[in-house]
Amino acid sequence: MPLPLWKVFQKRGLFSREDLEEFFKPSLKNLTPPEKILGIDKAVFRTIKAYKNHEKIVVYGDYDLDGTPGVALLVSALKDMGFSQIQSYQPSRLQEGYGLHKKAVRAFRQEGVQLIITVDVGITDVEAVKEANHLGVDVIITDHHQPKEQLPEAYAIVNPNQRGCASGLCHLSGTGVAFYFVMALKQQMKKEGLLEREINLKQYLDLFTLATISDLVPLVKENRVLLKHGLLELQRTTRPGLKALLESLELVDQKLLAEHVGYKIAPRLNALSRLEEGVLPLDLLTVTSEPAARELVHKVHDIHKRRKALQKEAFKEALELWEASQQETFCWVWSKNFHQGVISLVATQLAQHLGIPTFVGALLSNGQIVGSARKPDSVKMNLLEVLEQAPLLKFGGHPQAAGFELSQDQVTLFDEHLRAQSFSYENCEKCWNYDAEMSLEEVTPEFLKWLDACEPFGVGFEKPVFYFPAVEVLGLKELSGEHLRLSLGEGFGRVRKTAVWFSPKAQKREELQVGDIVDVLGVPQWNIFQGTKSLQILVYDLCLSEEKKRF
To answer: Least C-beta-crowded within 10 Å: which of 108, 153, 289, 326?
Structure first.
């Protein structure tokens, strides 16, 4: 193993041969047994009862790209296991909003539904579950969101984050919890001789992969094991919709990486639920005809382009509103012009751009504001704790990413509440976080072979960042889009490597000159252009070296 990578593993707590073997060859046999999750046995018992009695079941999932793959996964698995009366439901993001809704529960009862199984939703929906109980409809909640003090009185709750659950599976996505529920259900049905044929659960890992990467849950323990196998399943998926999307993105004939899912596949599917313009993500995940799948994919790309345009307009206006607000330690902006479907993206973009907690709201026609909150890593705070004390109609989510609703007449009170907060910041100015020091000479095909073997990368196991000290700028060329291509050297030009720097800050781009001795933060990668592979360094940041300024 190359020395820089060995230093990375040491820094991340992987020292022994056993640690490394498990890392590079994760085994599905080492997964935590599903029965460790509190409430899962009761959930399995009730579901098998529904199977035996031929009850009508609704799989009710969130509309995002964690809930949607989970709905597709659970519906597919139940049908594969012989359940005959299965239907799915997702609330409209724009018309109904997040959560399990009483109106939907009443409609299910009228249709003869006897059991609701949620995916990625339900843990805070006390009133809706109470309504279901009143109507004689049982509810099984599978969710991963943080519970509040009062839990819904559901028939069973399967949530690794609930109090009393010692499974150690808190890192699972909503779809991950649903997958574990399917694992437990399959085991028990097989034990009772209820399965008509053998079910290979690996066939659902393409959906698990899509959700796990999209929902930005930590790629640790079970998530990493399942994702390693899941990327292979997604690469060879037989689902016509996903297959057609991969083909349109030219991802079929290359190794599929987590970044392909996160930056190419997920944004396009997310756009469908954000805009709700006739095509939803579940349509693409469940379509059975290849011609219909290709037609859907064309619409997916069109809607994605529109989402990007709406986000660009909203970000521009949001930045202008913040600059006029005299808010220094946070950003709270809202507008009737913001499309509700892109506010979370704008909040994320603003938090990264400004480096402060960001709250973005879209004013609806009913006078309510639907908002999204995000925070940068440099701010030490829990968004849920901040929102809990605020004058809001509802809120929920995660400590680093949350949603909320308030009425228009609460805007000033909410602003005052945020101004009263004491946000704690880490001073990251001129502070580089990297995994290991590296020389240009160590950037080799062998090194990249090892680095590729470390995939998948993501939250909790990010791609390593390397520090290249005191290298010389031998050449630079401006590319379209205000990007730079650099020629870097060391040993008086004996070793040369190409580097690319996307969207450097204007001042740094203008000041950089040939002959400068610079420190570089980046990662080696393959550049594939017109079928030719070459080594290059992707630059994250660069500054004049403190050792030598310039020859």
So the answer is: 326
The rounded percent of the chain whose pLDDT value lies above 70 is 98
d(CA 525, CA 487): 15
Q: Are 339 and 314 contacting, i.e. CB atoms less than 8 angstroms apart? A: yes
Cis preceding linkage at 456, omega within 30: yes
Compute the distance between CA of residue 193 and CA of residue 170 in angstroms, rounded to an integer.
Answer: 31
Computed on alpha carbons and rounded to an integer, the radius of gyration of the chain in Å comes to 25
Task: State pLDDT tens for residues 260-288.
Answer: 999 999 999 999 999 988 889 999 999 99
Q: What is the pLDDT of residues 51-65, one digit of tens each?
A: 999 999 999 999 999
Read off the tokens for 73. Answer: 């996964």
- Give the Cβ contact number of residue 296 at 10 Å: 20
Topology given in CATH for the domain delimited by 31-199: inorganic pyrophosphatase (n-terminal core) (3.90.1640)
Identify the CATH number of the domain defined by range 325-425: 3.10.310.30
The residue written with tokens 């969207």 in the block is 503
Q: Is 163 helix (H, G, I), strand (E, B) or coil?
A: coil
Which pLDDT tens digit goes with each residue over 437-483? 999 999 999 999 999 999 999 988 999 999 999 999 999 999 988 89
Query: Three-state secondary structure along 33-93?
Result: CHHHCCCHHHHHHHHHHHHHCCCEEEEEECCCCCHHHHHHHHHHHHHHCCCCCEEEECCCC
CATH class of the structural domain 436-544:
mainly beta
**Residue 218, by phi and psi: left (phi above 0), alpha (psi -120 to 50) or beta?**
beta
Q: Domain residue spans in the chain? A: 31-199, 325-425, 436-544
Q: In which residue are the tokens 């009263």 written? A: 420
Which run of H or of E encompasses 472?
strand 466-479
Residue with tokens 């809990």: 388
Write the DSSP symbol of residue 264.
I
- CA-to-CA dists, residue 337 to 212, 343, 350, 399, angstroms: 32, 11, 17, 27
- Taking the C-alpha atoms of residue 116 and residue 157, their distance in angstroms, rounded to an integer, is 12
Same-fold call for 31-199 versus 325-425: no
* Model confidence, pTM: 0.87
